Amino acid sequence: MSEDRPSRPRRPALFGPAALDSLNGAPDPAQLAEAAHATAAAIVDAGRRADDPEVTARLVRLVDDHGLDTIADLWSDRPARSLPGALWRLYVVREWVRRDPVGASVDYHAGQQLAEVAHVVAGVAQPPGPDEVRSLADAVLTGVYSGELDVALQRAAAFCRVVSAGRAVRAGVAEGEAASTLTRRAASLQQTADDLDAAARAWRARDLT
After folding, report:
1. Fewer beta carbons below 10 Å: N end or C end of the chain?
2. pTM to 2 decimal places
3. Is 18 exposed, middle or buried (0-12, 13-18, 19+ CB in 10 A)?
4. Are 80 and 86 in contact (CB under 8 A)?
5. pLDDT in tens, 50-94
6. d(CA 122, CA 138)
């Protein structure tokens, strides 16, 4: 990645109806895939080149400003182990934590002793209450644009592993449909963690596109 920096960092304006309307007519899958990878690369590059806390903060708040559906239209169908797929998962995790910080903190607290290494990597402040998990979710996305992207992906993966372990613990004492739901969600989050770790390795190998 070039070290050259623009003289005036510009706010990325890559989301919204125009991002898809520009494809003209009914877009085919190849056009959608190209748009997804192009916007993901441009967003990450713009954020990292800007070196501006205000730009970083706006990028962290993409879902707040543009809505999860808008980002889903561009990124949610891409492979999990791609740049748009990884970014999509980071924003979904942040949105879940933002909407249900109490539930996120309960799951995390329940799992941290069973996933001690992941707990250390995630770096959630103790005790892991609602404010602490919210701060972690924001810190992860901040790291995408102003730190090391692979580290940000690994922290998110570790957070997911701890929460997954917590859900498994809760499933063990739940009954019926509640137990089944928690088990299913724990497995899904474990897969998300695996995908984010794989994306981190691909980024280090300069192979995450």
Report:
1. N
2. 0.86
3. exposed
4. yes
5. 989 999 999 999 999 999 999 999 999 999 999 999 999 999 999
6. 12
